[in-house]
Amino acid sequence: MEKINIYDLMLDDLRKILISLKEMPYRRDQLLSWLYKKNVVDFKGMKNIPKELTEKLEKRLFIGSLKIAEHVKSVDGTEKFLLKLSDGNFIETVLIPSGTRNTLCLSTQVGCKFSCPFCASGKKGFLRNLTPGEIIAEVMAVKKISKDAITNYVFMGMGEPLDNWENVLKAILIMNDPKAMAIGARRITVSTCGIIPEIYDFTKLDLQVNLSISLHAADNSLRDKLVPLNKRYPLEKLIKACENYINRTRRLITLEYVLIKGKNDSIKNIEDLVEIARRLRAKVNVIPYSDVSVLGFSAPSREDTKEFLKNLTNRGINATLRESKGVDISAACGQLAGKIKK
Ligand code: SAH
Question: Concatenated DSSP letters for 235-280?
Fold first, then answer.
């Protein structure tokens, strides 16, 4: 029998395994505490687990922790971790301190299918989904070496979370469970380039998890170019899915808007964006483009970025600027590429 990664297991599955091993149910909670609260990555280090049980567990299960292959720190405090997966591929995870927040940006796939032309993550194409346990292991690996507590978790690393929704959801449920990581759902954000059926699924779950939409363009012809998925799921359908989300959950969404010089920064672009933001009562998060040299796009100047933001706020939109962090270590938005095994 192939061994199972214990990080892949939903809490109920772990309970069932313990029952099948003729163990008492309270052992599960002990295991969860060692795994997720004390971050122990070896069954032998779990002090109140008897030796016989440790041996039984080791026959069926393994703890799929991930090794940090590289760890770099930016001058602005952002830290990037290159994690080695068991198949030899690598993913990147970024820890971003900002004021009282310490946000962990998680990857969900090796590569990405959606080929937004300005983003590095999709450049090498798509390789595979991460398992729930690999996503959990990203969190645990960073927690292990981070001095400060992580306050927020965003699925904004490599990949498209709603394209791997089953696994991402499992990871979120484990992260959120009080017996496991006990991370409040409101501290977790899922970001999508707009996969509509999954936005409806996400809505139905009625989680308290935040939803962000990578809009980047507010008219179809421009969005078709910047976010090619728009050809399949055009703006009017995306807006409907967002309206349904807002009405059903009574929660607001954030629209992310990567500001690219000469591409989506005109007054007409602003007016289109304002119309959608008003309709959705959404906050707009403006992200100045972070340079990915080979892709041929460029960042707006600081003044132009401020002007763009002012044009939004003057029209009554709640708009914020997301400072590019970790640029010097290629850890900023859209710069994560990981590594695919040669
Ligand atoms: N696939 C999901 C999750 C990735 S989030 C999504 O699209 O939402 C990463 C965010 O950074 C997305 O909004 C993405 O469009 C944006 N991004 C990509 N390349 C960028 C770049 N070079 N500069 C700034 N933001 C970028």
Answer: HHHHHHHHHHHHHHH----EEEEEE-TTTS-SHHHHHHHHHHHHHH
Task: Compute the distance between CA of residue 80 and CA of residue 68 in angstroms, rounded to an integer.
Answer: 10
Check residue 327 and give its pLDDT: 84
Q: How far is CA 311 from the centre of its chain?
A: 29
**pTM summary value:** 0.96
Q: 198 in ligand 1 pocket by Cβ < 6 Å?
A: no
List the one residue out of 114, 252, 133 whose CA is nearest residue 189: 252
Report d(CA 24, CA 15) in Å as an integer.
9
What is the position in ligand 1's atom list of the atom closest to the CA of 289?
23
- Tell me how far the alpha carbon of residue 214 lies from the centroid of ligand 1, in angstroms: 7
Q: Is 334 in the pocket of ligand 1 (CB under 6 A)?
A: yes
Give 10-residue mean pLDDT values along the chain (342 residues). 96 97 96 98 96 97 97 95 96 95 97 94 91 98 95 97 98 98 98 98 94 98 98 98 97 97 98 98 96 86 97 98 85 75 60
Q: Provide the residue count of the chain.
A: 342
For the CA of 290, the closest atom of ligand 1 is 23
d(CA 165, CA 47): 35
**83 sits in which H/E element:** strand 79-84
The catalytic site residues sit at: 92, 333
- Separation of 52 CA from ligand 1 center, angstroms? 48
* CA 258, chain centre distance (Å): 17
**Which alpha helices (DSSP H) does 288-336 contain, by range?**
302-314
CA gap 202, 166 in Å, rounded: 10
Side-chain half-sphere of 101: how many Cα atoms within 13 Å? 11
- pLDDT at 119 (0 to 100): 92
* C-alpha 118 – ligand 1 centre gap (Å): 9
The tokens describing 29, both together, are 């909670």
Buried b (16+ CB within 10 A) or exposed e, 79-118: bbbbbbbeeebbbbbbbbbeeeebbbbbbbbbbbebebeb
